[in-house]
Amino acid sequence: QQRQLDNVGRLTRGLAHEFNNLLTTIGNALDLIALRPGADGRTQALVDLAHAAADRGSLLTRQLLAFSADQTLVREPVLVQDFLLDALPVLRRACPAGIEVQLDLTSDLPPIVTDGVQLHSAVLNLVLNSGEAMPQGGTVTITAEVEQRLAPDLSQPMRRHYVAIAVTDQGNGMPPDIAERASEPFFTTKEIGKGSGLGLSQVFGFVSQCDGFVDVQTAPGRGTTVRLLLPVIEEVEHV
To answer: 84, exposed or middle or buried, with CB in 10 Å at 0-12, 13-18, 19+?
Structure first.
C-alpha cells in the first residue's frame, strides 16, 4: 500500500509541475496580449477572465504538490495587514460575478513567520469556497486580529499569541458530518469536474506546518467561518 501511495505521489508531482509550466506560458502570453498597442477594454476584460482561470489552475497545482508532500515552506516575516491588502485584487478577480470580497483588519497586527505563497493559496482556497457557497451572490468577509490561545500538541501547556485570519460567508453552511470530513484529501460534495477536494486539505496541512491550527464554525443555513491561527513572532509563555 505504501508503494502504491509513493507511486501516486510521484505521478501527482510530475503532473503538477507540467501543468505549472503550461500555466506560466499562458500567463506570459496573456500579459503580452494586454500590452499590445490598440488593446481595448473588451480585450482587457477577456485577458482578466483568462488570468482568473489561470490563477485557479495555478492554485490547483499547488494543492497537488501539497498532497504529494513536495512542498517546502519558505519561512519569512509577513505583515498580515499588508499581505491581505496586496492580495485583495487577486482574490476579487478570482471570484465569480456577484461575489464581493471585503477586508476588516485590526491595525498594528504583529508579524508572523510563514510562507507568503502558501498563505496566499490558503486564503484564496477559502475565498473560492465561500464564493461557491453563495451561488446567488453575497459578500465574503476577511478579518484579522490577535488572539491568545493555548498552543496545541505540546507536552507542557503554553500560551501563544496568534494572528487569526478569518474568512466568513453567509452561504449554505455544512452539517456536522460533512464539516468533520472537510479536511480529508479528495473529499468533496461537489459534482465531478467541479472540485478536486484538495482545497481545505491544503489549508489544514499548511497551517499545521506553521505550528498553527484551524477553527471551522459552520451550520446548515448559517454560513461558514474558517479561521487560520498562525503564531506571531514572540517567545511562548508557560501557563
So the answer is: buried
